[in-house]
């Protein structure tokens, strides 16, 4: 399945967020337009979660904030055993977790260059 990572740009102030928030984090605006985020991003920061909500497989989970340039940032799962700040990542579409019988899909980020 091929999907494009889409951010949500606030129509009032232009701030782009992913995933979508009910209200803009900057101006509390509620109207957004979808924008493509591109294929490469840089890892800004990450955290490893060891206590996972029920239904999420493969612990520990690494959550990171990536930067697509121009201040466009996204939060997602980092697929790397050894994440490093500043490493290049690319978004990949895949299964995020399973809740009951329902499988949730979304974007994760894996190293742009293997090895
Ligand atoms: Zn805004």
Characterize the structure shown.
The chain has 115 residues and is an all-beta fold. It has one domain. It contains no helices and eight strands. The chain has strands at residues 6-10, 16-17, 32-36, 41-49, 61-67, 73-78, 88-99, 102-111. A five-stranded mixed β-barrel has the order 4-5-6-8-7. β5 and β6 form a beta hairpin. The chain is globular and about 40 Å long. The two termini are 25 Å apart. The model has no long low-confidence stretch (mean pLDDT 85). The structure holds zinc ion. The site of zinc ion has 8 residues, from loops.
List keywords for this structure.
0% helix; three-stranded antiparallel sheet; globular; mainly beta; binds zinc ion
Distance between the termini: 25 Å
State which percent range the strand residues make up.
over 45%
What structural category arises from helix and sheet content? mainly beta
The major β-sheet equals:
5 strands, mixed, barrel
Average pLDDT across residues?
A: 85
Distinct ligands, ions and cofactors found in the model: zinc ion
- Rg (C-alpha, Å): 15 Å
- Give, in order, the helices and strands: EEEEEEEE
